[in-house]
Amino acid sequence: MLPGRAYNSLAARNDWPNSAVQVGQAVSAADPYLDVVRQQWFEQACARISPQRVKALIVELVNHHSPTGAEGELCAFLAKHLTAAGFEARYDRIGEQSGNCVARRRGDGSGPDLLLYAPVDTHMDADPAIDIPWAGPRLRPDMIPYATIDNGAVIGLGAANPKSMVAAVVEAARCVLEAEVPLAGDAILAFCGGGMPWLPQTRAGAGLNSGVRHLLAQGVTADCGVILKTWDDIYHEHPGLVWFRVDVRGSLGYAGLRGEPDFRNSVVPAARLTLELERWLIGYADRHQSGQIRPEGAISAVHGGWTDRPAFPSATTCIYLDVRTNPDQSTMDIQREFGALISELRPRFRDVQIGWEMIGASPGARVDPDHWIVRAAERAWVETHGQPYAGATPMSGQSDAAALCRGGIPLVRIGFPFGKDASTPEELRDGLGGMGVARAEELTTAIRQLVHIVIDTCTRSRDEICLATEANSERTPE
Asked: What is the pTM of this model?
């Protein structure tokens, strides 16, 4: 949201409810008010928020291990949990180990259907044979799929991201159900696997939005939606990503014949090329910042040779990169830009051959900032924070949001404060520290935001909010 469009909700509410719209009155996307009745529903639903219940669910979710491509057990548990809570819920199996959970609270059919979404998969297998030493010298408590409690915080693999996001979505929908808010449109809950930017070699076909692709193929859709992620901001733009592998090819050598004229070491030139690629990545983010997206990138791995044969320098060394994209960049755009970079660098590395290929892609997307769901999220932020919303900090955190938008569901991203709290044990603050540390109380504001969006949207008719999904949604061509 642009700063000039911020709402001064507290000042406006001094004469509320006299200035509030009435039930059934047409409402523009920019209108900052709930009417009197909806405000009562909102307060009644929020009164049912239970941090203790949220905390207990996070513990259960952490204890159901769900690495990318093996989320089936967790989603099956969620389906049973939501059925017991009063939702129509099902487990949607994808493969032997993977699956999604879909639940619904039905309205009377006259209003817009709203998707409430959170991913379920974690970024690690939590297997020392696979993750050590790449994740560190050992698996820390926040890297293990078993929940522990420390100073009130739930610690375990994925406790904050994604398990607390799932728990918050469940709690918000459950509070609306328990408050018996009469819905016009359906509130649909979806929790998908395969959302992490990861393609597990042992679980073929999983990762990079695989769960969302299956969800959409099964006919699950909505007029608009909300994804809950980290960072207490509102994003209507969603970054994409492209993965590249660069091959530096020399010749197989032998340590005892280093001086042979035909020996072309691939490892040392690859190290030099890595530094060149890093310099390009720094400038890349500056060149392609657009709106809410600052597309960063990183060199994630360098691989070459046999680790058990140091005497034989590798003929090929591979460099792997993740490059984020803004919604205006197509996959071909970044492919051509990267190809031009490699062509420019090749003359500096005449002793080796440099090849490359794109090995993964997930394009970005955006929703019109004036779309109903974006403005509803802004109203919810103002209501729950008690101050104007000044706008989002540009970011490049990829999620399932772009894939859902490309699949026809205009989606807004909201979040919760995410960081390395001073009370977090010091060893858990390093690197991705924070992903495995969750505090249920810190989710309350996000849960209230979700409740507000559900009531603001699902208790109206489509005509009342002038929802025109196709007119207001912009999909980025691939």
From this structure: 0.91
Residue ranges of domains in the chain:
3-238+365-474, 240-362
Which residues, at least 6 apart from 210, have a Cβ–Cβ distance to it below 8 Å?
Answer: 69, 94, 98, 193, 194
Rounded to the nearest 10 degrees, the angle between the axes of helix 165-178 and helix 444-458 is 50
Other residues' Cβ atoms within 10 Å of the Cβ of residue 420: 13
Write the pLDDT tens digit of every residue in 232-291: 999 999 999 999 999 999 999 888 887 666 788 899 999 999 999 999 999 999 999 999
Distances (CA, A) of 257 to 253, 311, 351, 464: 7, 10, 17, 79
Long-range contacts of 385-388 (CB under 8 A, 24+ apart): 385/445, 386/9, 386/10, 387/9, 387/10, 388/6, 388/7, 388/8, 388/9
| CATH number for the domain running over 240-362 | 3.30.70.360
Sign of CA dihedral 225, 229, 235, 237: negative
C-alpha 197/C-alpha 214 separation (Å) is 16
Domain 3-238+365-474 falls in which CATH fold? Aminopeptidase (3.40.630)
| Three-class SS state of 372 | helix
